[in-house]
């Protein structure tokens, strides 16, 4: 991404950046990204810094998770969001499923 | 202290005090009595990403007490591997004379019964278990109430274990183990890198939870939940307070590198990272933790 792209990305919210990073890499069929920072505002490690965009819930359904343990799936997501984690993203609640796992039981 | 108390979500505080139940660590009993010593933040073990719609009308989802068959349990049986389900629902403990001693509620009936058998074996002869389908709080409450009411109607009394003030079925919260410290203090120069200390610690202890805060006073919701789950499972675990700047200085950053995992809390079993709060919760809900901790 050229510098203009990077600047544009920074202007988007963290939620949008998370969404776009995960969507493209994971070909997600379901992708929900929620900023729940206000639920954690004021707790010990966050106190003092601005309580914006620090805690997110993400739910991803992707065929790329097939055959991966939960730990592996979470690692994939963490790696994709490494930049965010270095720049103030503090916690991520992850639900990572494959399309098969979300089919209603017969 | 992580008290597992379904009244945490405040919706039960307006119920009549008739069904007073003691607090019970592995069993999520309803505490209708306002206890002065109740800790400020009881734990809710409801899943984060619950997608269940709230039912407008709660149909009774459990067989009646009378219709349910009792399962005799002898102390030698491994209760959890036996015929008792490890799902959520209501259960009734009968003593060796066939009298009901206690009617309880649990997210893991087999686990709760196992604890009772260890702590008050003289009061335990057999158990009736009623699994509740779609065990949300509402359904579980209804089911428990239905068994209590049925029993009271038939016998004219409350089971002795359910009387208010009865602490028999309450496990006294064990004096919590102190958290492990990685170093003797900041003033002491380390002779080995912190990573090595972490490595040794997770390899020498079966279950290790790196949390924010101490196990008796966790400092973040995810850490609190991890402790609640570990306490509920009754497993022996070590806890390490990553916020302790005196004895665990630099731990947060070193741990993240060591495990290649960017968030806290982190749980290790048999020297390997199991994951964080989400993964532990998911395994807990699927009933996978018992076998993980046994290995």
What does this structure look like?
- Chain B: InterPro entries: GIY-YIG_AtGrxS16, Glutaredoxin, GRX_PICOT-like, Monothiol_GRX-rel, Thioredoxin-like_sf.
- Chain B: Belongs to the glutaredoxin family. CGFS subfamily.
- Chain B: This is Glutaredoxin domain-containing protein.
- Chain B: Keywords: 2Fe-2S, Iron, Iron-sulfur, Metal-binding, Redox-active center.
- Chain B: GO terms for molecular function: 2 iron, 2 sulfur cluster binding; metal ion binding.
- The complex is a heterodimer of chains A (106) and B (295).
- With 106 residues, chain A is α+β, with helices and mostly antiparallel strands.
- Chain A has a domain at 31-44 and 51-106: 2-Layer Sandwich (GMP Synthetase, Chain A, domain 3).
- In chain A, 40% of the residues lie in helices and 19% in strands.
- Chain A is built from five helices and three strands.
- Chain A has a three-stranded mixed sheet.
- The longest helix of chain A has 13 residues, at 14-26.
- Chain A is globular, with a radius of gyration of 15 Å.
- Chain A starts with a helix and ends in a 9-residue tail after the last strand.
- The mean pLDDT of chain A is 84.
- Chain B has 295 residues and is of the alpha+beta class.
- Chain B has two domains: 3-50 and 57-162, no CATH class; 194-294, 3-Layer(aba) Sandwich (Glutaredoxin), CATH 3.40.30.10.
- Chain B is 27% helix and 15% strand.
- A four-stranded antiparallel sheet of chain B has the order 1-4-2-3, with helices on both faces.
- In chain B, a hairpin with a 2-residue loop joins strand 6 and strand 7.
- In chain B, helix 3 (194-204) crosses helix 5 (251-259).
- Chain B starts with 69 loop residues before the first strand and ends with a helix.
- Mean pLDDT of chain B is 79; it is low at 1-44 and 46-58.
- The interface between A and B is medium-sized, with 19 and 22 residues.
